[in-house]
Amino acid sequence: MGLSWMSALKLIPWVDVVQATPGIVRGARDLWSRTRRAKSEAEAHEGTILAPGDTAQLAARIEQLEVEQLEASRLINTLAEQNAQLVATLDAVRRRTRALMACCVLLAVGLAALWLR
Fold it and tell me: Which residues contact 71 (CB under 8 A, 6 or more apart)?
């Protein structure tokens, strides 16, 4: 079990992961802070009734929400790409482990056959 984890850790493109991490963390923090701020603003405006002239305010809020949605989708796409890389790497390790196990079984059968002669 330890060998397969070590092999998996060696195969992961850590340079790419480390280079992408600060941007992902910064994006997640920005998204989180905007979400908190938007929630507090929504709670503050919850009891107010909009006048007919407040459509510009609503349009600005919709535009802000669209920008946040785009940034959230970019962050999710980046995380999904990294997840796909990790899954592909672990799949390769799984296949190599199975091949190694098959070789070990064949070697054991061959050694048993030589020993029984």
Answer: 27, 30, 31
Q: What are 57-83's pLDDT values in tens digits?
A: 888 888 988 888 888 888 888 888 888
Q: How many CB atoms lie within 10 A of CB 61?
A: 15
- pTM, rounded to two decimals: 0.47
Q: What is the DSSP string of 44-71?
A: HSTTPPPPGGGHHHHHHHHHHHHHHHHH
Query: The domain containing residue 75 runs over which residues?
Result: 1-23+66-117
User: In this structure, are residues 48 and 95 in contact, taking their beta carbons and an 8 Å threshold?
Assistant: no
Task: Please check whether residue 85 lies inside any domain of the structure.
Answer: yes
